[in-house]
């Protein structure tokens, strides 16, 4: 309590005329709430009431963490309790997603006050909610049969009308695709320097050959994104630059939650498709340790890492043994004379074709392909925290780069974070 009061006083000193009235109001509210917290403590042996915050500022955690929370409840990994949440309303990645979670969760701004009051009394940790991490290393999505988040009949009809207006008939399949670029974070959170994330970027036009091929196979494609670096340059009417022409928060969720599959980079966008259990064909996956391996219908191909001093690419084992596979900042690669190399347009197209043919049940596996996949899975099981390796590396990518499966070649393994 003493530390709390000192903190409030110090904040009020900086701008007393603006801050002080708010502090007084919040303090009075805390005083009113404290008796309720005391009662919550008393009844906790019979009814456990908990409070927590939803990670609403970024689309990835805002999608995955609540869905994995429900998966944990289904599997008995969360205590039996009545849970209340709040969002930081100044940073909502997608307001429509907040509305949809509000159907399933008790969400109120008052929860923040209850958390503050709870921390003033002993035993508050038991009444806090620990949401799971957004990375589903335990494969909870794959082992939980139902999708918890859902569209109402009205929302399904609204989404269907948009598709029909874009020339997509009721039975026609469509694909969402996207590439990560730096514009979104630099725009919505300009106070931060996000340059360290640039190693994850790639140009959306590298996906165009894949998109053209998929239209020949009967698909319509929607280029996704909230704020994007450039418009899509294509004359194909079946490839729609939704991000620059039609984008809204409801359709962001509806399209990603209803598509045949998602094609593109690892970002918050693909997390929406995951919570609806839509398959993903992930390209330019990096860092290697965070590749999504937990969904059985997923495919991926990683970026390769070029070592300038040695004049060659690193193998999977070299990346994972040296912690390079866990580098999350562009400057870490530069400091160790490394370059992150994007997938080619041909590699991306090959992965898209494989996903289409696997989903349609016409994919042909050749001799030796499964052995290569198992080699990769064995490396990943030994070198990372991934326990269930259900996704697959693109077949053609692994055939053409089978040297990635080789053992250590040099003293690169001496590099550590």
Explain how this protein is built.
The longest helix is centred in the N-terminal third of the chain and has 28 residues, at 16-43. The protein is of the alpha/beta class and 417 residues long. The strands form three sheets. The protein has a seven-stranded parallel sheet, sandwiched between helices. It has a three-stranded parallel sheet with strand order 1-2-3, covered by helices on one side. It has a three-stranded antiparallel sheet with strand order 11-10-12. The model has no long low-confidence stretch (mean pLDDT 89). It has two domains: 2-134, no CATH class; 151-362 and 370-414, no CATH class. The chain has helices at 2-14, 16-43, 59-74, 95-102, 110-118, 140-143, 153-165, 183-188, 208-216, 242-245, 249-258, 268-275, 316-321, 330-335, 345-359, 369-383, 395-400; strands spanning 49-53, 82-86, 106-107, 174-178, 220-223, 239-240, 261-264, 280-285, 299-302, 304-307, 312-313, 338-341, 392-393. The protein is built from 17 helices and 13 strands.
